[in-house]
Structures are given as structure tokens and as C-alpha cells.
Amino acid sequence: MILAFQEGLVPGESIAAKLEWLAVHGIDGIELNGHELPRRLPEIKAGLARFPVQATAICGGYRGWLVGDDSEEQSHFLADMQTLLECAAELGAKGVIAPAIWGTSHYLPLPKRKSSPEQDRNMLIRNLEILGSYADSLGVTVLLEPLNRYQAHCINTIGEALEIMELVSSPGAGLIADLFHMNMEESDPLGSLARADRRLAYVHLSDSNRKLPGLGHIDFAAVFAQLHQMGFKGAASVEALPPDRTEQLSICANYLVSLGDQLK
Fold it and tell me: What domains can be seen in the chain, in order of their start residue?
């Protein structure tokens, strides 16, 4: 398994400084922010050539979502995603992470959806087909991420994501599991990981309180053991709230590396 941190969490002003920090702490990869990524490619590629760290995936940097009810926004989203998938291919990353949607919920006082559940489902499948086919042609993946019910009105669980995956024919569509969201939505998180099996392409590491692994109540030793038992060879990347103190990042890195070492 490849250990990574999201770019925004890593100390350092430049990408080179961030990559050096990761290398010093025994972290294998960096999950890149997609904002203005095409412009940043030369600097990132130069940094990756200097340090034993790889780009694992791209998160964010697109306008819109896989499910939307604005045709212009959907056009922007598909174009942005295709550009980011091209960047992922150029960097050797697994692909681009995308939830179905963000900022919608049946549990909060938000505006009602204009589209029906069936329309949302059909749009999600159609867009995953389009982007998955393009991703596959580039040798990368579009990674569908289930979010908790307070952040998204659809695709909240691994099971729901797997149902969609069964209806998408392109091998360029994959699944990412986020432990923070799973902590809220899955009655048996380890069982859900096992159920995902070969569909699981990527993992987000975050504790039960959205803080760094080790600062909440998720049993990361059990999670790592489950992933090891499954033969998971993808990347597990830390996505968490910024810590109160920078040294907590070093503690977290050491903790995760030690968990991985115990399984070797």
C-alpha cells in the first residue's frame, strides 16, 4: 500500500519543500490539488524527479459535479475533469477524485432538488461512462467518492457506489473509500471495505472527527490489516483538517508508517 498526504496538509511553501518533507518522513506519495494544475505541471514534474515520492491522485479543481441540474455547469465540469485526467496521466497518478455532488442534503434546511432521484442516478451513470471511457483511454481512473448524508444527498455508502459501478461499463471508473464518511454511514466499515474488494482503487485516511489519523476513535491498525488482507496495492492518502501544531503531522506520518511496517 502506498501512503500519501494531501498537498495542502504538507508543510512547505513550494512543491519541492513538500516533497522533501514527505520523503524525509517515509511517505510514498502526494495527492495533488487540482486548482490551476496544468499551469503547475512543470514545477511538480521537476520536484517529483528529485524525490522518491509519487503523485497518487488529483482532488478538486473542477467546476460542478457528476450530478448537477445546470447544463452550463455540467459542460464546465466535464471539460475540467477531462483536463485533470490528462494531468493525472502525465504525472503517473491513479486518477481524479470526484464525489457525485457536494452541498446537498435531505437532512439540512437546503433548497429542494429540481431533479428527481432517478434523473440524478441517470446523470451520474452517464457522466461516469463519459469520463470513465476517457480516463481508460489515458490509462487513469475517475474515482467516485461516497460522502456522508449531510454533505451529499446521494451516494453516501460504499454499497450505493458499488450499485452504480455495476451499471457503468467503463473500467476507467473506480471507487474511493473515505474513512471519515464511512465512520458516519457504514454500520460495518471493515466489512464494507471487504465488500468493495477489487473495485476499491483508493482510500482517504481521516479520523472520526475529521482530524489526522490517531486523533479520533477509528482503529487504523484494523483498517490497515483489512486492506492488507484484501491485497490492496493502491494509495491511502491523509485528508484531514489542518492540525493545531505542525509537529502533529510528523507524529501522524510516523504512526502510519509504523502501522504499515507491522504488516510487512
Answer: 2-261 (3.20.20.150)
Rounded to whole angstroms, how far apart are CA atoms 127 and 170?
11
- Residue 98 CA to residue 142 CA, distance in Å, equals 7
| 190 burial level (CB within 10 Å; 0-12, 13-18, 19+) | middle
Other CB atoms within 10 A of residue 217 CB: 8
Burial class of residue 246, CB neighbours in 10 A (0-12, 13-18, 19+): exposed
What distance in Å separates the CA atoms of residue 140 and residue 112, rounded to the nearest whole number?
A: 35
201 band by pLDDT with thresholds 50, 70 and 90: very high
Strand partners, 98: 144
Mean pLDDT of 221-246: 96
**Count helices and strands in the chain by DSSP H and E runs:** 9, 8
Average pLDDT of 155-160?
98
